[in-house]
Amino acid sequence: MDPKYTQALVLVLFASILGVSNSYLNKDWQYSDWGSKRGSHRPGYTATPNKFIVGGSANWTFGFNYSVWAFKSGPFYVNDTLVFKYDPPSEKNIHPHSVYLLPDMWSFINCNLTRGVKIANETQGAVFKYDRPSDKNMHPHNVYLLPDISSFINYNLTKGVKIANETQGAGEGFELVLKKWKPYYFACNASDGCHCKVGQMKFFVLPYFVVDIIDIGN
């Protein structure tokens, strides 16, 4: 892995954190013309948490760039819900997906799921959404949560935790609520990590932590 690439990803992460701090100081910032002129994709925080289908209409599938999706769909906030949808295992889906939550950026970058937590198995694509294994889905997906940035950058899923198996992406999909203000690194470990390394089935989000600012002047 090119050190410059790794440094760039780390800088993006810290820039996101700084953006959170900036939002505390001016809650109206995201509603101003400043954000729209710079291509912001989503309005500011609302009292009601939002629900996102991971990948949109593409769902949780091989070959889709989820890092780009996460960038375009953000910002995310604490208590927002991610929905993973994917097909369960079947005769046509012999490489079903799952969902792992990785512990840090290194696990995420390297697709290292060894310390990740499996939060949705191959049958839970009900709401990371992906198809169950079947005759037509011979490579079903799953979802891993990776422990750190190293695992993410290097596609190292050995430390990841499988949070959704190959059948949990069906129906309404596998749902995960972003309960804490921390980076969440996701990946699919189907076909021994090929879906993560080659199929671009990985992304991370850093939800905003919302606080009420007291106006001392009033």
TrEMBL record:
<dbReference type="InterPro" id="IPR003245">
    <property type="entry name" value="Phytocyanin_dom"/>
</dbReference>
<feature type="domain" description="Phytocyanin">
    <location>
        <begin position="50"/>
        <end position="209"/>
    </location>
</feature>
<dbReference type="InterPro" id="IPR008972">
    <property type="entry name" value="Cupredoxin"/>
</dbReference>
<keyword id="KW-0732">Signal</keyword>
<feature type="signal peptide">
    <location>
        <begin position="1"/>
        <end position="23"/>
    </location>
</feature>
<dbReference type="GO" id="GO:0009055">
    <property type="term" value="F:electron transfer activity"/>
</dbReference>
<protein>
    <recommendedName>
        <fullName>Phytocyanin domain-containing protein</fullName>
    </recommendedName>
</protein>
